[in-house]
Write a structure and sequence with these properties.
The protein is an alpha/beta fold and 489 residues long. The protein contains 17 helices and 16 strands. The protein is globular and about 60 Å long.
Length: 489
């Protein structure tokens, strides 16, 4: 639908940005924190830095929150480090970890910034893996339940918006890349048991949040990527639907309806997959009624028909930020991805598709009729300081402007959207490309080489430099989405 006027955002709309503990905090061996599996995984991403220092938010959170307040934030989405809160298998709570997050939450509230907290963002403690069996073991459900109760008990008086597990669908679809597959011998079968255990952990979080947090609201955080058919060939349309089901929709359906769809049950039957699903599990899943859906949306994908006798091809991610390096996946008989000639691409071959945001929100609203908040959306780019010591990230301003405008159009279309928190506030460690792939509104003055060779974080500058996008975003949010910085028509 076309609108004559620019979209309007609700008066109580929350504006901010996002991060994750393991990607921003650093201080991995400080304050009683013990190692997480993602620490080990990050060390496999050479030549990039691991998460030992990241953006050093652990030591500089007050400085970072002050910058958020200067920008005009009314919300900040971040995650809690499981092994910082519960460092060992004895289940004892680490007072230093609780203090760190209490101090961060208090600092946010002092600056009128609403905390939106993710309980789990990829950082399974090593002790859970080594002593309990990790995501392959149902013992992890009890450990996760304990974590949830500790978090709700300690932070629930001030934190009212909670997120359960970040991008569970991506952890299953790309388990090798994210390290979820550790210890598995037959990933294509075992991942569905892991997925079920994660669903039960999500359900535990939802149930206990409603029981323990007065006025608390909680939702899942799916990674959502609209998938378009390559052509009007019916085979391409079905392939796009297959890809949608097998990379995201079956998760969203399960969150909302509390049961597995007929599609995924038939998929399991066809592929000789038999997850350990017990009657009491289904009762728990039904009981877990979510309050909203958090949406991580960066891009779109395009799919075409894949013949059953074609050769399987795994996703080959662009590692070094040189355009044209992406290797598209092919799943014989189900779907294959390909490039889209109608959109531009980032340095890392991710589609720049602002209408994907409007599509995502309308799709999710039409299917589930639940409020939504954007918890990740951003541009990863190669960036350096200019001669004047500043970062003039025009491409990010253009990206955010177009994305946010489409959020506004979705609101005009009738979608209920309550917050926009893009990725990320500061530059931080990307999932597999170190700090080289920069997402922030604020530049962190360091490089992967410096982080790798550093013996003491005090040797590094780590200076926070406000990018041009910081100033642009500040004007937009302080005007509640009215000052676009240029005519959008």
């Amino acid at each position: 639908m076309y609108y004559k006027e620019d979209p309007k955002f609700p008066e109580n709309f929350m504006w901010g940005a996002s991060s994750a503990a393991w990607q921003v905090e650093g201080g991995v061996a400080e304050g009683g924190r013990t190692p997480a599996m993602i620490d080990l995984n990050s060390r496999k991403k050479q030549p990039y830095a691991d998460n030992s220092i990241a953006a050093d938010h652990y030591h500089r959170f007050k400085e970072d929150v002050a910058l958020m307040a200067e920008c005009g934030f009314s919300s900040y989405r971040f995650s809690l480090s499981w092994s910082r809160i519960i460092p060992h298998s004895d289940g004892k709570v680490n007072p230093e970890g609780i203090k760190f997050y209490n101090d961060l939450i208090d600092e946010l509230i002092k600056n009128n910034i609403t905390p939106i907290v993710t309980i789990y963002h990829y950082d399974l403690p090593v002790w859970v893996y080594e002593e309990l069996g990790g995501w392959r073991s149902r013992k992890t459900i009890d450990a996760f339940e304990h974590l949830c109760k500790v978090c709700f008990e300690n932070f629930g008086d001030r934190v009212k918006y909670w997120l359960s597990l970040n991008e569970q669908n991506m952890q299953i679809c790309y388990g090798h890349w994210l390290g979820t597959s550790a210890g598995c011998t037959d990933w294509e079968k075992e991942k569905w048991d892991i997925n079920h255990i994660m669903n039960l952990c999500h359900a535990k979080a939802v149930v206990h949040c409603h029981e323990m947090v007065e006025g608390g609201k909680i939702g899942p955080v799916p990674g959502y990527v609209p998938i378009y058919p390559k052509t009007c060939n019916p085979g391409d349309q079905i392939a796009a639907m297959n890809a949608e089901e097998l990379t995201q929709k079956i998760w969203n359906d399960t969150y909302v309806y509390g049961e597995y769809s007929g599609f995924i049950k038939k998929y399991w039957e066809t592929h000789d997959v038999h997850p350990d699903i017990r009657p009491e599990d289904l009762e728990l899943m039904k009981k877990a009624k979510i309050d909203f859906i958090a949406v991580n949306c960066y891009r779109s994908n395009t799919a075409h028909e894949s013949k059953i006798d074609s050769e399987r091809q795994e996703y080959g991610l662009n590692k070094f930020g040189i355009k044209g390096q992406m290797q598209w996946p092919n799943v014989p008989g189900e779907y294959a991805f390909c490039s889209n000639p109608y959109v531009e691409y980032t340095d890392w071959d991710w589609e720049i598709d602002p209408q994907a945001m409007r599509y995502s929100l309308r799709y999710l609203w039409n299917h589930y009729r639940l409020p939504m908040m954007i918890t990740e959306n951003g541009l990863g780019a190669n960036e350096t300081k200019d001669a004047d010591g500043q970062v003039h990230d025009t491409a990010r301003i253009d990206f955010l402007r177009d994305q946010i405008y489409n959020v506004g159009l979705a609101i005009e279309d009738g979608c209920e959207v309550i917050a926009y928190n893009p990725w990320s506030f500061t530059d931080l460690l990307s999932t597999g490309n170190g700090i080289k792939k920069r997402y922030g509104l604020v530049y962190i003055d360091t490089t992967d080489e410096e982080l790798v060779n550093c013996k003491d974080v005090s040797e590094l500058s780590m200076k926070r430099i406000k990018k041009d996008s910081f100033y642009w975003y500040s004007k937009l949010i302080k005007s509640n989405g009215k000052d676009w910085g240029k005519d959008m028509k």
